[in-house]
Amino acid sequence: MTDRTYENLPTLIGELKRSAIDAYMKSQGWHIDDGTKYHLGDSNVTRPAADGSGGGDWSWIGFWDIGNDGQDSKWRAAFDSVRSNIDETLQPWLDLPDTAALLEDDIEQMRQANRLLSFSPSGGTGGGNIPGYLTGINENLDAMSGTTIATFKAEFLLQLEKAIGGHHGITVILGSALAASNEIWIRARKTVADIVGETQQALHAYAEGGDISWEVILQVAGYAVEGAGLFATGGAEIALKGAGQGLKILTETTTKKDTKATAPSGDYESLMTGFGNSLQELSDAIKAEEDALADNLTLNTGKVRADQGSYDLKRPGLLDISDDSQADIIVISRPLVDEITRTYLPFTADELDSARSQAYLATYEAYRDGSIGRGSNGISPEFSELQWILIDLVRDLEWETRNGAKTLDLAIEDIGRADTAAEDDLEKHHREVKDGSGATPWT
Fold first, then answer.
1. Which of 203, 222, 265, 421 lies in the 20 to 30 Å Cα band around 148?
2. What is the model's pTM?
3. Boundary (domain end) residue, out of 71, 93, 115
4. 61 is in which domain, residue-wise?
């Protein structure tokens, strides 16, 4: 017996076609004779091969030769009709998302973005380097003072953890959606194979005159929640620690695990109708799971948009300085300040840039025939909207962090000096940054 896997679907479909033709001939009063032909009275018709191909050659074994009279064409056409019906029913299901080749890579990309933005090993997938850099910044803050610095500290440096924590929370939501989609399609592929295999066995039993047993579990049911939990290890509360207000991982749906497809009646027509109905029920089950994921993404996108301050820091006023006369900066310990401007902030910016790149690569690739689930794009519109908000938010924060450090470093170099190259560098830098990063997360 062929293993019921999606990879074995061509073989399973061939076996289904042969059993379906066997059952069809049984419904017409014919019987299988010695495994190679069907028999009715003095007529024989060749049976299809094990892969469902061929068959339909009529012959007469009676005393008088009555001639073929188009019998071959009649039965070959009948067999082709059975095969075509199966092909048409299965056609939308023959190119389902290959999770091993697509979604698993996307999940890993988002997991890496999640790690880079994480503040502790319990925060999703493990802590990144940013917490150490922010600790260094906070420890060195007393090395400089003045009103310009006080504002920079209050509005930016001391708010970095909140903003990055919000970005981390968004990766949890997006990663959970990818992980859930992955689980749904793993099980959708298996369920298709089960439907084909179970229908084949039922048709074979009908053709042989035996007892018909038919049971298919719609394995996708409940896996929007189950899959989401695989990404948010440690639970939602831990995974979303430090995120903005109200982000929610999907924790419940109206669907239930181990939901069964409707069992058909035990004759040829009913079994073939049940075959198509089961695939439709699978599509409906996929849609229910995808609807739950899409609703969760939309909910969280709305929460992010409504709480922009937790994700998008105000542009540092420091970036508007073009001359030291505009700044009130008192340097108490230059080496400690240099650690902030030349090490901790640039390194934080590097980590943010890496996280942005990883999040960008984590695309949703669960595309399929438009008749299945939520349609050909699945949850892509909802996923992409939140993903691009995240990408632009991290891009903007990386730009502000890197250029804030450079502005502060150049301003300190410029303090108390006459017009020099250092001052020119500060003015040039101001011209370069005055228009911002170009990121537009809210449009």
1. 421
2. 0.90
3. 93
4. 6-93
